[in-house]
Amino acid sequence: MHYFQFNIGDYKxxxxxxxxxxxxxxxxxxxxxYLHERPLNSGITxxxxxxxxxxxxxxxxxxxxxxxCLTEDGWVNTRADREIQHxxxxxxxxxxxxxxxxxxxxxxxxxxxxxxxxxxxINIKHKTDINTTPEGVSQSVWQDFVSHRKANKASITQTAxxxxxxxxxxxxxxxxxxxxxxxARGWKGFKADWVAEKQTQNGLTKTGQRNATVLQGLTRGxxxxxxxVQLLK
Length: 233
What we know:
Blueprint: H1 8-15, H2 20-36, H3 44-50, H4 57-67, E1 69-71, E2 74-76, H5 78-113, H6 139-151, H7 158-171, H8 175-185, H9 192-232
Antiparallel strand pairs: 1-2
Helix pairs in contact: 2-4, 3-4, 6-8, 7-8, 7-9
């Protein structure tokens, strides 16, 4: 320990009977004990030398015998041992608190970066600015599409627009046509396969109409020829 609490009143009440050299010896013995946190050497001569009082072994011996206890490990001071134990207990407690605080901060940062399953995963699908109309799409069609998506509680993401554009290209449609079709049919998305059948049906209808027109023309031609024959007769 490089620091210990010093209670002046308590120290004075227990050392008021000491002379100057004895008081000096006691203060130096306490400093040595707290600094190394271990029992003092059992040899009085060695201890006196350690505290710089080799010429005052008598005073050193007096203090050791009054305020310390000789054990197999050396001279110990029970009051100092309690202070040292209390000091290390506070350090250990502060260390545990610091580790717990660091763990809470780490868990908080980990929670912050985890996606919220109840929210739109915007970290995966970046939102598109609904105020920016895509290239090739009229403002009116885009606003209709935005309103349509909001009504269906579907977010407008760059991924969704890109997917619709790709499917529109497969169908031979423009992005504007695809978005307009989504609004008209109440679709959240767009698939080329969804309009392929429609295009086929429209093609067949147009072919039937052309055939009917040709047939009507032929019929009128035939009827017209028959009338001329009758007139000739």
